[in-house]
Amino acid sequence: MAVSRWRGLGVLAALALVAVLAVPGQAQVGKDRAGTITTGSAHSAALGESIAYNVYLPHGYDRGAGRYPVLYLLHGRGDTMQAWTQVKDTLDRLIQDKRIPGLIAVMPDAPWSGGGSWYVDSRYTGTDAPGRPVETALTRDLVNHVDSAYRTAPIRDARMVGGYSMGGYGALRFTLAHPDLFGSALVLSPAVYTPLPPADSSAREYGAFGLGDQKFADEVYRELNYPDLLPGMDPELPVRLFVAVGDDEYANPDPADARHDLDFESEALYNTVRRAPGVSAEMRILDGGHDWSVWGPAFEQGMANLGPMLSVVPPTGLPAPLYGTAGTDWAGGVAAHADGSVTLGLAAGGPVNGRPYAGKLDAVLIRRNPDGTPRWTRQLGTAADERLYGVAALPDGGVLAAGYTRGDLDGRHPGNTTDDAFVVRLDASGEVRWLTQFGAAGAADRAYGLTATADGGGYLVGYTKGALAGTNSGDKDAFLARIGADGQLGWTRQLGGAGEDKAYGVAADATGVFVAGSATAGLPGAPALGGLDGWIAGYGTDGTSRWVSAAGGDGDDRLGAVTVTTDGLAVATGESGGDLLAVAYTSAGRQKWSRTVATPAPDAGAGVVALPGGAVEVIGYTRGRIGVAAGGADVLAVRLSGTGRQQAAAQFGTARDDGVDPFAEPNLYATPTPAGDVLVTGLTYGTPGGGTAPGNGDVFLATVDPTG
Length: 708
Known about the structure:
Layout: E1 3-8, E2 11-16, E3 36-44, E4 49-57, E5 70-74, H1 88-96, E6 104-108, E7 123-124, H2 134-149, E8 159-164, H3 166-177, E9 184-188, E10 211-212, H4 218-224, H5 226-229, E11 239-246, H6 262-273, E12 279-286, H7 292-306, E13 330-336, E14 342-348, E15 362-368, E16 374-380, E17 386-393, E18 399-405, E19 420-426, E20 432-438, E21 445-452, E22 458-464, E23 477-483, E24 489-495, E25 501-509, E26 512-519, E27 533-539, E28 545-551, E29 557-564, E30 570-576, E31 579-585, E32 591-597, E33 603-610, E34 616-622, E35 634-640, E36 646-652, E37 668-672, E38 678-684, E39 698-705
Parallel strand pairs: 5-6, 5-8, 7-10, 8-9, 9-11, 11-12
Antiparallel strand pairs: 1-2, 1-39, 3-4, 4-6, 13-14, 14-15, 15-16, 17-18, 18-19, 19-20, 21-22, 22-23, 23-24, 25-26, 26-27, 27-28, 29-30, 30-31, 31-32, 33-34, 34-35, 35-36, 37-38, 38-39
């Protein structure tokens, strides 16, 4: 399979193109496809003795040369390493069904100080059974041994830890205290108590949380427990947790300890960790008690949830540098020029490259030389907000940019307090040639999309709450406007139904103009499908309405970007029911094909670029796994043929959200370069490898070679 090359500022990074994992039905695993369990032993310098363990090796391990992720499984108090062997059939089936990758599972024995001593380093020094450094032994000595004895990938993305009861406490602690080692954890019926264990808990008996000759010290327990670990979590090392518990857990008869029932404590754990920076969590409550009637099905559900994220290949990060300020910043578009330079657009919450800052958000345009050095910066703003939603290159080396302002940006709208659309033309040296601000008086108007025309003008799309071109049909109407090379509005068209209608994307060729957007109650010529609908419309170059078509299903759908392919098709992208959607229409409005790209998590398209031969590159985001997941929402690139067939897919990003804003809407743009690459810019809340982040949301710029 081909490899797509992502790069930024001359830094190349390869991404294997990985198909979405299939999830077929649960078939029985034949003996010829089953894994094996054998025993092993690892010397522990911390303990001064060996750690015994069972190890599950997947089918084909002995005949291959590849590396595998590792799952560490911790047993509960009173059990041994044999307890986890009963999940072998589940692992065989999950791997055969391709619901999880092939993996190694290590099941250590923990016989020390009452069966594991809660998997922590005990400070108890009593002569009856002095504490042991169990946590150090397992997280350092055992992990190092496994990485040297088996074909593992010694990276956090390839390690998961799981446990039940006391082992659930251990799995949670190992992940939160050692996020550099473990990227995820199965936390089943965890024996975690806050702020302290109940009076009858065995956590108080064996010295796990002891100090000196005390078998239990309140301060030690608090220090080692999850509430004290969460504030120190590094969002750049995010962890994923799957918490599960039975609904028939032991009910403590002492009213003072009733809140320590493990179903209550598990819910408290989940509702605490899911609010912590750098932690994402899922919670399941199953029918059953504190036994394998819960742990068996919970293990399978947890592995199906977390297992697909295991990867022996490190994720590909964002290129440095990021653009922005210490304030709030948003991506606003990108344009590639014939001389190899690039114009980047953003909305900035402070001064950029020493330019004057007007207040709140300013519209900023940065021209970069082919070698990445800055050529010029132009910052436009008022005391109110300005946002950019599109940048387009002009034949003379200049650039158009569009968005909205809530102030008097052009000097001809004194006292303005509502959103107005604006479009600005800069010449190749960054000087403003003209700036046009327009909108219905007293109503909100925003430009959300832009494409340039050969004469130096362009087409703008967005929405109006007023009457730009006729009577308003509802809450908001979409608009399409033609702007001339002199900055004058040539004509404006308004399209709306009874609900809220917006236009986000626009593309044009010599035959017509194509607009994509969303509607809540249907449009004339495009009846409502249910929920929020995506739509695409065709116009003549003179603004004559030709056709409108709804796209999607009975859930929430949206089309946010559109391009015209070399075959003359209008291809739009967005989302449908939580999946990335791409649709293609002829110039006459007939749908040629429709394609969805789906993971179990949210996915959406945000930009689409025409490639040679009728193909397109769709840029969007995913919270799932299509390539190698980096964390949070990742940027997604999908190459589709001229007939809509998926040819390749890859993802990249940081440990935090990339390409999506706090309102779960894409903040991404893509454009072709003269060299045949695709420029991608978007919002990130993370930090690039080897770089820094100004903070509070910044803007990245990367390049993909779709033919690589």
